[in-house]
Amino acid sequence: MPDVKVPDVKVKDLKPGMGDVNIELEIASLGEPRAFTNFKGQGSVCNAAGKDSEGDEISVTLWNEQIKQVKEGDKIRIEKGYVSEYKGQKQLSTGKFGTLTVL
User: Fold this and answer.
1) How many Å apart are CA 95 and CA 83, to the nearest integer?
2) If you ran DSSP here, which 8-state letter would residue 23 be given?
3) Domain range spanning residue 61?
4) d(CA 6, CA 18)
5) Residue 75 included in any domain
């Protein structure tokens, strides 16, 4: 069975709970990385602001190696991303199955 290409979306179309999100963003700003420990071990997490081609922004959660990959001003592509909500704000992450590529 051939792979079905899921079209790219824009920030304005993202809703909490959406999965399989494909989107291209520019990193508008990067927060400070924070260390964490959970049942899987230790890691780092960082929040960034991602802006789409229409200028709309969303919070992007970067994990571990992704933090080192990305810098302010980079254009990125997230495939199979996941949208969640934290304190009323939409957040985009690669989740368990997604990928992040610097363009």
Assistant:
1) 9
2) E
3) 28-102
4) 13
5) yes
Distance CA 62, CA 84 (A): 14
C-alpha span between 70 and 78 (Å, rounded):
12
Domain count, the chain: 1
What's the rounded Cα separation, in Å, for the pair 7 and 33? 31
Q: In this structure, what CATH number is given to the domain that contains residue 76? A: 2.40.50.140
- pTM for this predicted structure: 0.88
Per-residue pLDDT of the chain (103 residues; tens, 9 = 90+): 455 566 789 999 999 999 999 999 999 999 999 999 999 899 999 999 999 999 999 999 999 999 999 999 999 999 999 999 999 999 999 988 999 999 9
How far apart CA 17 and CA 91 sit, in angstroms, is 10
Write the secondary structure of 27-49 as one string of H (helix), E (strand) and C (coil): EEEECCCEEEEECCEEEEEEEEE
